[in-house]
Specification:
Elements: H1 7-18, H2 21-25, H3 27-31, H4 44-71, H5 78-85, H6 88-102, H7 104-122, E1 127-128, E2 131-135, H8 136-154, H9 156-184, H10 196-202, H11 205-218, H12 223-226, H13 234-263, H14 266-269, H15 275-321, H16 338-354, H17 357-385, H18 400-419, H19 421-444
Antiparallel strand pairs: 1-2
């Protein structure tokens, strides 16, 4: 009998995927610095609005994905949904992005952030003696990826318990940070009012580009959809986990970023990766900051762990359906996609060694936004073309909710193309190579190959 993920684990996956790297790292990149060394976005209202707007996008997406997940309850997320809604080629391209960068790159970003926080907390050198080509933060990140991949490849129940416990600890500690920041922190005198400067910031290109960092921070609101086929009672538990987890994280994100901005002057945050460490040092002093930085690095384990659970389920689904990837489509005797987990770990380590943090975020943010856009649009198309299909759950606020999600994503994607053209075009190019790989698979596939998933139906 196959082991199923409970509602608790599914919700923990959503929360853990969302809460991690982004909220502890991206605020510094949102504020930014101009050539003169001044903050690009200087309004507290604009910066908080980024997190509110990002939360609305995530909630609208979660509400809509719940309908898709109940309608097509198989693990795989966008790979599975786009295959069913449009065509296997489009589904494969989404799966190709998830396989190559969609999870491995965010795990790399989280691991780099964890290593950076831990290095700061322990006052370690930036590079290790005798290994000047390799940063200390990268070495730490690689060791973490290897350890967590081993846990999840060995035992699903152990991995689920680890995920639940560390997520509960993470959430509790974040609320402790919020409480201590509000009671012990001193105001940095940043205005959160609707000033002319706030309106200017909100209408600026920098605000739109900053949404990539925010949507990256919120990415994971759809995490339970990637393991839908392994969730107990998916028609009930999938929507609950997606919506409950997303609402919870929105409240936490807005409060946490308000505390960061309330207590730390913008110039001290601008351009910094480890904003949580900067905050902790400001409020608790050098010793307290190092302790807090060490704890925050521990909290990032939850995010990395959740993505190591979710990502390989897509790779396994691709392996079940496509000949060239059949080696990833098998489970171990314990019903675990071990080969897919190891493959993602190898790709993650490659990104840790070769990519910078902000490039990873913008590149991944553009490609993932593109396919979530297509999925939400697909829900509306299927509603119109196939009204007869059974829908135990229907999107709340339909059609306004998915329509708003689409409009906001068009805005983000357009600004991404205009102002981060290189990373966006690279994402489009990698997506296009997926179509080539799809065609090659069709060409070389033996006649006796039998897909066991989407292409079999």
């Amino acid at each position: 009998m196959k082991t199923k993920f409970s509602l608790t684990t599914a919700t923990a996956l959503v929360i853990a995927n969302m809460v991690g790297t982004g909220v502890f790292t991206s605020l510094g990149f949102q504020i930014g610095l101009d050539k003169a060394g001044n903050p690009v976005i200087s309004s507290g209202l604009a910066l908080i609005l980024l997190w509110v707007l990002g939360g609305m996008i995530a909630l609208f997406g979660a509400l809509t994905y719940s309908e898709a997940g109940v309608l097509y309850p198989r693990s795989g997320g966008e790979y599975h949904y786009l295959t069913k809604m449009y065509h296997p080629a489009l589904g494969f391209m989404a799966g190709w992005i998830s396989f190559t960068v969609g999870f491995a790159a965010p795990v790399a970003a989280a691991s780099i952030a964890l290593g950076t926080y831990l290095r700061s907390a322990l006052a370690l050198p930036e590079v290790l003696a005798g290994a000047a080509f390799l940063k200390t933060s990268s070495v730490i990140g690689i060791l973490v990826v290897a350890a967590l991949s081993t846990i999840h490849a060995a035992d699903k129940i152990l991995g689920a318990r680890f995920q639940n416990v560390i997520t509960i600890f993470k959430v509790a500690f974040i609320f402790v940070i919020i409480g201590l920041g509000l009671t012990l922190g001193k105001s940095a005198s940043l205005s959160f009012g609707p000033t002319a400067a706030a309106v200017h910031d909100i209408l600026s290109p920098a605000f739109a580009v900053s949404m990539f960092f925010v949507t990256f921070s919120y990415s994971g609101w759809n995490a339970a959809a990637y393991v839908a086929g392994e969730i107990d009672r998916p028609s009930r538990n999938l929507p609950i986990s997606l919506i409950t987890g997303t609402l919870f994280v929105i409240a936490m994100y807005v409060l946490l970023n308000f505390v960061f901005l309330y207590t730390v002057p913008l110039p001290e945050l601008a351009g910094k990766l480890e904003v949580g460490f900067v905050f902790a040092t400001k409020v608790f002093g050098t010793g307290g900051g190092r302790l807090m930085g060490g704890i925050i690095s521990f909290l990032l384990l939850s995010s990395i762990s959740a993505m190591i659970i979710a990502g390989p389920r897509i790779s396994r689904s691709i392996g079940e359906d496509y000949y060239l990837f059949r080696w990833m489509g098998k489970n171990s005797r314990k019903d675990i996609p071990v080969v897919a987990i190891v493959t993602q770990a190898v790709l993650t380590i490659f990104y840790i060694l070769t990519s910078t943090f902000d490039q990873v975020i913008v590149f991944v943010g553009f490609t993932l936004n593109l396919f979530t856009f297509m999925t939400v649009l697909g829900v509306m198309i299927v509603r119109k073309k196939h009204p007869e299909l059974p829908r135990p759950y229907k999107t709340l606020g339909y059609p306004v909710v998915p329509a708003l999600f689409l409009l906001i994503n068009i805005w983000i994607l357009a600004y991404g193309l205009m102002y981060r053209t290189k990373e966006s075009l690279f994402g489009i190019g990698l997506t296009a190579t997926g179509l080539l790989v799809y065609a090659i698979d069709k060409k070389v596939r033996p006649r006796d190959f039998r897909p066991s998933g989407d292409e079999a139906t």
